[in-house]
# Entry
Amino acid sequence: MKLVTYLIAAVVALFGLMFIVGAQGQIMRLVVGVVLLGAAGVLIYLTRVQPKKEEITHVQKIDLTGDVRLEQMKCTSCGGALGKENLIVRAGAIFVDCPYCGASYQIEEAPKW
# Structure
């Protein structure tokens, strides 16, 4: 993309120089040549200036209702102890990935009534 912009700037600058050299006392041709040279300079400047990259951080918080103690969670397949690092959010649901047996399942909350 930069190469194309530099080529366009070179062509615009060439036309600007042609208008200035061929002005022969005509003010309008001189003005057009200066404007074209200025446009070529602006194209080169805008190509060289790098836009600032914005870093966006998304924070996703999980709100578990009721008394949940992550230290006491156990895998339903092998009974291995699970911690908060084993919880993953996929498509808005909370999943558990067991590091011991490799099981992956969704946490289902039992009704409170």
Observations:
- The helical segments are 2-21, 27-48.
- Residues 27-48 form the longest helix (22 residues).
- The radius of gyration is 33 Å.
